[in-house]
Amino acid sequence: FYRDDAKATGWNNLAFPSVGMPHALWQLQGERRAVFEERESHGATEQVFKGWEQISPGTMTAQQYDQAVGDLVNYLQWMGEPSQNTRVRVGVWVLLFLAGFTFIAWRLNAAYWKDVK
Fold this sequence. Notes:
- It is built from three helices and four strands; from the N terminus they run ββαββαα.
- By secondary structure, the protein is of the alpha+beta class.
- The strands form two sheets. A two-stranded antiparallel ribbon has the order 1-2. Strands 3-4 form a two-stranded antiparallel sheet.
- The longest helix is centred in the last third of the chain and has 30 residues, at 84-113.
- The protein is elongated and about 80 Å long.
- The mean pLDDT is 90.
């Protein structure tokens, strides 16, 4: 997110431009502005993202903010699907069973057909 006074919320998003969503964690990250440079491409001028300019500091450093956002995203992913750990654990055993059953079926098939050939 970056400060953009042209938008109704006062914020814009580099990943999803013009989305109608404010920056909920701006106090932690601080206010920053996106720096764009203009380039000529196929006869048209386009703005290309160059970097960030920090307007005011937040209560966290950049590393602390990235760590906090990563933790928040991981927590929300876990809250969205708490049974994922169980599914992964059971899935490993199912794959091992299928591998064993495939081996037994292959050997049994060979034993049944050995006299036919």
